[in-house]
Amino acid sequence: MSADLNIVIMAGGSGTRMWPMSRTAYPKQFLNLNSDSSMLQETVQRLEGLADHQTTIITNEEHRFLVAEHLRQLDTKAEILLEPIGRNTAPAIALAAFRAQQKGEGSQLLLVLAADHVIENTQEFQRVVQQALPIARDGKLVTFGIVPDSPATGYGYIRQGEAQADAFKVDAFVEKPDLATAESYLASGEYLWNSGMFLFRADRYLEELKEYRPDIFQACEQASQNLAADLDFLRINKEAFEACPDDSIDYAVMEKTDQAVVLPLDAGWSDVGSWSALWDIKEKDADGNVHQGDVIDKDSHNNFVIAQEKLIATIGVDDLVIVDTKDAVLVADRSRVQEVKDIVSTLKKEGRSEHVQHREVYRPWGKYDSIDAGERYQVKRITVNPGAKLSLQKHHHRAEHWIVVSGTAKVTNGDNTLLLSENESTYIPIGVIHCLENPGMIPLEMIEVQSGSYLGEDDIVRLQDDYGRTKE
Prior knowledge:
Blueprint: E1 5-10, H1 39-45, E2 53-60, H2 64-74, E3 79-83, H3 89-102, E4 109-114, E5 118-119, H4 122-137, E6 141-146, E7 157-164, E8 167-174, H5 179-188, E9 191-201, H6 202-212, H7 214-223, E10 228-230, E11 233-235, H8 238-242, H9 249-254, E12 260-265, E13 269-270, H10 275-281, E14 290-298, E15 304-315, E16 320-324, E17 329-333, H11 340-349, E18 360-363, E19 366-374, E20 377-384, E21 392-394, E22 398-406, E23 409-413, E24 416-420, E25 425-428, E26 434-437, E27 444-452, E28 461-464
Parallel strand pairs: 1-2, 1-4, 2-3, 3-11, 6-12, 14-15, 15-16
Antiparallel strand pairs: 4-9, 5-13, 6-9, 7-8, 7-9, 8-12, 10-11, 16-17, 18-19, 19-20, 20-27, 21-28, 22-25, 22-27, 23-24, 23-26
Helix pairs in contact: 3-6, 3-7, 6-7
């Protein structure tokens, strides 16, 4: 018997304001920003014990293996829907609702959450969700409004109307205000921050969507036909979904329907939309500093310093954000961290890769770190997970030399199959078909030296792949 509740987690964002830790290929929902778990993992863990439920993750092709790996680490099962292109929240939620109908679960409740929010008080969050369940079962479209503790200008607001059972009718959704307006909202006690979290029956959402945005409804209905299963993933019809308009659930449905209600939520919520927002919720030392990693400070106050790769020392500086990664360092005034997105825009315009991926890149089989590069050569440190296997492949422009640092490598090199152990190596000439596998019980660590006229990642011809990437 299927669960009455489906947790729908939207995990497709790029999180440019958290650069340089957040990149297009590894955005903030996969980062351990608030604990030892990633933000996606925290979102999943937050629902443990809430009720018997299913989990659906909506993400994209690029991040599908990251989602699967983060769920695997939690030993959690979920259905993963792959959007072929981003079309905002209204279509994304429609895909989950149509999927529920396909499975004969049209009256199933959908609890829609973002993968990159912080909620400190899990018990209170679950209490308010439990309070909302019967309201949603009765056909209302529930949203959760955050009880404001400051006149924030970075959030949209919801104006509460008349009380309806344990909730309030939504009088209006209002855009992000200026400071004076936000102060008046806070003083009135009638306004809540718009959290972007929702609860409703799948069929009720689709009914409202069909009434107010029939174009989105029809496109998503078409895109949900003949879903293609691939490993842990369900692919949406690309051509149909590309024809879908781009719109948020707020604009498409919630601002138009007369069936929207809001429940106040006061559970230590943050959307972690900037480095200053993360500094706000972190525990600070006596001087107001938040330090992560190897940091020494002298006469410095109210700074947020993350040292991932090297020692960072500060002397006599205040109100700074300093974030160190393997290939970039951010130094910003804490009051201007919203402008980090402008740096990302500059990187894009200049055709640089630092906005796309880290020096260390994750793959479904493990990861690699580009530790050195020059004209006609590149050196990578490769980690292959136990039991994992790279694709059977060849290169037109480069040769490779593999040296095992630790673990055991099973190598296909042309017509030969080799077992290599620590300090052993093999050479793969240009054009030779090859494959790398870890048959052992511990991670395989290896150094790869590439040489040739072109060393780009697109010089990979995949002939066979356990992860379905031969068509990419």
